[in-house]
Amino acid sequence: MIRIGTSGWRYPEWRDGFYRGVPQRRWLSHLATQVATIEINSSFYRLQPPSNYQKWSAETPPDFVFAVKGPKLITHIKRLRHIEDPLKTFLDSLALGPKQGPLIWQLPPSLRFDRATLADFLAALPPSRHAIEPRHESFRTDTYFDLLRAHNVAHVVSDAPTFPCIEAVTADFAYIRLHGHDELYISSYDDKQLDEWAQKIHDWNRDTYVYFDNTMKGAAPDNAKGLARRLGSPLTSHT
Hints:
The chain is an alpha/beta fold.
């Protein structure tokens, strides 16, 4: 199973390109006809009511999947410590039902790897698919990889010019975020780069979620479709 999509969908920059002629209220449903999965980012910035998740679920095909980003209250403010109450509040808010995919935990660039802190955090997570995206070089260590493997948590392989790309597969699924190789959130992936990512995914030979976050100039949807074609993956979840 390979699902390829975009990180978010609410981008005014796409209005005159990908969303040309599409009313804003239909942006999500329109994108969901083009890709097989979308990463929900708004949950990172503020707690979303269950009604929002239910609405988004209703606007997408039956076998569509959302990844959901964990709140910055947990990752950036509390920095993975003393997170029991906000974690429960976040988990209780989720209302995607069978469309719930992995939960992604994006760590701040200033957060260094600390085995004890991460071990406690992983132990607090409920059974589900979880992915950790570190943005500090100190995570490039076997101690970190082994800890994730023990919990079957995926390390997020991130491609960006401003934080390290650490390639490691640590779970029975892989998770990739492509933020723009040359310019963060901007640059498009050319044919050679898409070929290289397709080969890596093929070689990993496991369930994989890929999200293009190069959204600021609208490259993400086309890149997602280009990578899906290379892998023979359905462009949409209901194809």
